[in-house]
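Two proteins, back to back. First:
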Amino acid sequence: MPDGNDGSESPSRLGRLLFGLGLALQASEDFRDMDDTVEYAESAGVPMPGLAAPFASGMMLVAGVGVALWRLPRLATGAVVTFLGVVTATMHDFWNADPDDRDGERLAFFGNLAMIGAALVFLRDAYR
């Protein structure tokens, strides 16, 4: 029986590939329009958004590729959990959003919550 560390279970491998690529592609979109990404971070009160936004996007890009390829899985999945935990609570706080933005922030919050759940499953697998 596979021990979970070699990525040999097909459903998990496919799930990790899709999850990791999704994260990496989203991060690459942030880089394509970094001015908007920085502006959004600034509007959420992120300190030093000109540094924080590119750093966070870079971290997500590298972590996503790490999950997809199952390289340094503890580091990659840990980075995803950390990133999503911080971003979900600070950037998508729909309970404080303007009424016009509340629905979009709520959707992003719950989408990130689902991704945190997936990342935690992969993090558990990384520690097997």
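And the second protein:
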Amino acid sequence: MSEADIGVRLTDPSRLPTISSETQLRAVLASLAGVDAVGAEARVAKLATRSIKTSSKRRALDLIVSMIDLTTLEGADTPGRVSAMCAKARRPDPRDLSVPSVAAVCVYPDLVEGAKRHLEGSSVAVAAVATAFPSGRASLAVKLLDVSEAVAAGADEIDMVIDRGAFLSGRLGQVFDEIVAVKAACGSAHLKVILETGELVTYDNVRRASWLAMLAGADFIKTSTGKVPVAATPPVALVMLEAVRDFAESTGRVVGVKVAGGIRSAKDAIRYLVIVNETAGATWLRPETFRFGASSLLNDVLMQRLKQTRGAYVRPEEFSGD
């Protein structure tokens, strides 16, 4: 199969190839256009200057709340901490019931059962990190057991992490096959594939990893674990959003994007919403297709939301730190 033939197939949804060999996978990824790094960064800088009218800001803040995966991924996590986080996820501001619930809580697999119990009857999903998070360095058998235990405990979503060492050393078939196997182990749970973009070095690698994950069956592609110095960045989000947009145009299948790591302010989150709207379009401006992975973002969004009502900032301690 020639690269030219693959190029035709990528623009014709009815002819998109089923990946049955690493040779086919490499041909598809080789056919992708390179990323104009200067152009991507300039585009993001330009979008950052966009302002949102006051009348639209309240809606944007509520949308951000509804897109948050409220996260705790520390070795010192306890059932009590998870319980408090679940209460906040259900009712981010108990004094104002018009504040929407968050999209999900994200925890380690051993805490899924408790989180599921605390969130029973709510719209909040339970996500679990799996597959030897955050390194992704374990045998496939171990990774699949990790996933199976989380799903058995009630996880609605699985956040898996790819083996970046395998990707960067060219073992693309291994990465692809692991995602396929994890997707199968997820059953009805949605699969988010963490690329750990800060370790992928180039925007071209981010684009290729995004397509690889989507071809393997990812429901979401996610920037980061939040455990490395460079996590989500606006240019990387732009590249990933272009990838899901182009993939949807080529296949008819919509894949979501999750940005995680280092997003702490409502101002930053709103900038991401602008990038989503201007790059992928309104289809992705909903919790089903765009998420923020965060632990501290919610508090700032709630503060900004109250400022819209009171006309002045409230004290940060008015909101729970959990």
